[in-house]
């Protein structure tokens, strides 16, 4: 299986993207900001299509627009934690822009380029990554992981009790902005693996399973990242062995089934971790 270069690239990029998604996703669930990631996934779609419509590399729009909107959402929210009204407003605005740029791209640019690029942005193209793009994606993911781990301790404090954290001198608002940038970066890079429509599953399902299985932060972070990476590995292998399975579907199916198994298991045992131990 690993004799194929396209699969080597897929495993390289997918592994590190999953690692970043698992770590960021654990904090998303803890901070109750899962749907913020959903909005940013649609922003990634809109940004990529805007770049394609302008004749630019889709990655320029992916990262630039997603990071800018993440900062804007933080500025509109209390202590850089956008509320439901902000999330709903941005979501509607972004969907409208996405439709506009999709129409513009398909009518203006599709005749001179690859008309399937819009579908690729929506559903991912992990088997189509070149070696250079796979390495670049892995490097970006590693940077996100490193930055998140540097911020993990104060971010955990601010997530559990932001008022006490602020009173103790923790820069809660600045941490909120930094975290939103990490979420935006993760959403942008994950688009290449599972697509803009399915990013939320890779961010939320492994993290949700980890939160149900343990209350310890370090163990939860490791478990969330491990489940995400395992989902990518199993999904890619299943997609290779059964070519009719799209890789993004296979990856998300494994992640979702893992969450379902964790939910059922904790209910059968009569336990459900709800409080994170400091």
Automatic annotation (TrEMBL):
<keyword id="KW-0472">Membrane</keyword>
<feature type="transmembrane region" description="Helical">
    <location>
        <begin position="60"/>
        <end position="78"/>
    </location>
</feature>
<protein>
    <submittedName>
        <fullName>Zinc ABC transporter permease</fullName>
    </submittedName>
</protein>
<feature type="transmembrane region" description="Helical">
    <location>
        <begin position="35"/>
        <end position="54"/>
    </location>
</feature>
<comment type="similarity">
    <text>Belongs to the ABC-3 integral membrane protein family.</text>
</comment>
<dbReference type="InterPro" id="IPR037294">
    <property type="entry name" value="ABC_BtuC-like"/>
</dbReference>
<feature type="transmembrane region" description="Helical">
    <location>
        <begin position="190"/>
        <end position="209"/>
    </location>
</feature>
<keyword id="KW-0813">Transport</keyword>
<feature type="transmembrane region" description="Helical">
    <location>
        <begin position="248"/>
        <end position="268"/>
    </location>
</feature>
<dbReference type="InterPro" id="IPR001626">
    <property type="entry name" value="ABC_TroCD"/>
</dbReference>
<feature type="transmembrane region" description="Helical">
    <location>
        <begin position="164"/>
        <end position="184"/>
    </location>
</feature>
<feature type="transmembrane region" description="Helical">
    <location>
        <begin position="85"/>
        <end position="106"/>
    </location>
</feature>
<dbReference type="GO" id="GO:0010043">
    <property type="term" value="P:response to zinc ion"/>
</dbReference>
<keyword id="KW-1133">Transmembrane helix</keyword>
<feature type="transmembrane region" description="Helical">
    <location>
        <begin position="6"/>
        <end position="28"/>
    </location>
</feature>
<feature type="transmembrane region" description="Helical">
    <location>
        <begin position="126"/>
        <end position="152"/>
    </location>
</feature>
<dbReference type="Pfam" id="PF00950">
    <property type="entry name" value="ABC-3"/>
</dbReference>
<dbReference type="GO" id="GO:0043190">
    <property type="term" value="C:ATP-binding cassette (ABC) transporter complex"/>
</dbReference>
<keyword id="KW-0812">Transmembrane</keyword>
<dbReference type="GO" id="GO:0055085">
    <property type="term" value="P:transmembrane transport"/>
</dbReference>
<feature type="transmembrane region" description="Helical">
    <location>
        <begin position="221"/>
        <end position="242"/>
    </location>
</feature>
